[in-house]
Amino acid sequence: MISYHLGVDDLADMRFACSPVLETATSLWAVREPSNQVLHLPWIRRTTPLLRDSPDRDLLLALVAPEVGWLPDFVTPRPSSPLPDVDEELAKVRSTPPRKALADVIRAYDGRLLPPVLSELCANPRRLRDRIAAAITKYWELAIEPHWPRMRTLLEADMVHRAQVLARSGAAAVLTSLDPSAKWSNGVLRLKVSSYGLDYATEVRGRGLWLVPTLFAKHAISPVDPREPPTVAYPARGLATLWSPPTIPAPRALEDLLGKPRASLLASLSAPTSTLELARQRQVSPSAISQHLATLLANGLVSRSRAGRVVLYARTTLADQLIGQIRL
User: What pTM did the predictor assign?
Assistant: First the structure.
């Protein structure tokens, strides 16, 4: 059980962010145990052959401590902004004090014997940190960067949704929606992360609580060390659409009303999606998608929300009612 004690000011300072380096590190769970990550199998099938011949493969897989599944805290730094740049996050990993990097690796193994690939590096903490940072950087470029625009769109859509829940229903509704185990009572957020074995209570005390959607965690997770900045990474919504988004055929009547391109676009917008992702899915130019979206927006059939530098579009209630009536 992890417990975060939050005051009124802490709740007011609660923020959302997504993190490319967090996705890079936590994706190692999927590579190590594919059977536990069925929804990521398309990505796993593409990534595993690329990683097989990498000289960093054993080191990367060793970062996921067997049995407990913990990762060293320094390879999952808390974001410093809602949409951090990957180079900034990787610089944080590279600038970790060597002794902290060593302590984080040992703590992640929770008293278990380190594998040879790590134990040999532990004799030189600076070399340990540098080797891990270099391996994470190369792995990002190999496994995550090619897919990051698509991943980021889903993560940003989740952030927009949570922000709407916060505005509509308050902080308690957001916090208890992060995980089935999440409980909020008397200023304390409790998360029963039994599958990861963490057990501590800590005061937030002005350090800020950051909520980070992630694609590879099956439950809400927090840093291994309670002294780390308070952070909860939680499973993002809509994961089933990430690698093989379903093609939703538009009803013929909707095509007659709006034209086939706009009808198809509207039918697919069940979750917030960026112009670039919509263009990628259809293999057309972003400008073509923008023209259709502008028409749908002007007629109240889509809504527009901004997440940092990205604008996300989703169907409105009116559009849902229209599609529902046409399908009857």
Answer: 0.77
